[in-house]
Specification:
With about 100 residues, this protein is an all-beta fold. It is built from no helices and eight strands. It is elongated.
């Protein structure tokens, strides 16, 4: 059994017991979250598609981590202007508990 779920504007294929990293979700480790925007559900060969499914995916927040550093370097030639900016995107690790 698996489902396609929309989390923070991105689509993920999830199944029970799976750990995955998603864009930052507010909450602390151990908090329960629920995602009701299920786009597809596959259960034993029976596939149901549609944005109006009465299914939700329950998960638990495991922790947070930062992604790789992305550098934005700006420079204007012959002017002596150089600017180096970097950022690291936050990700939340979740564990899928149930699809109901």
């Amino acid at each position: 059994m698996f489902a396609i779920v929309k989390i923070a504007g991105q689509q993920f294929r999830v199944s029970v017991g799976q750990n995955l990293y998603v864009p930052h979700i507010s909450g602390n480790a151990g908090d329960k979250v629920s995602f009701s925007d299920v786009l597809l559900l596959e259960d034993g060969g029976k596939t149901t598609v549609g944005p109006d499914l009465k299914v939700s995916v329950n998960a638990e927040i495991v922790g947070e981590r930062k992604g790789d550093k992305v550098i934005a370097f700006k420079m204007k030639r012959r002017k002596g202007f150089r600017k180096k900016i970097g950022h690291r995107k936050l990700y939340t690790q979740i564990r899928i508990g149930s699809i109901a």
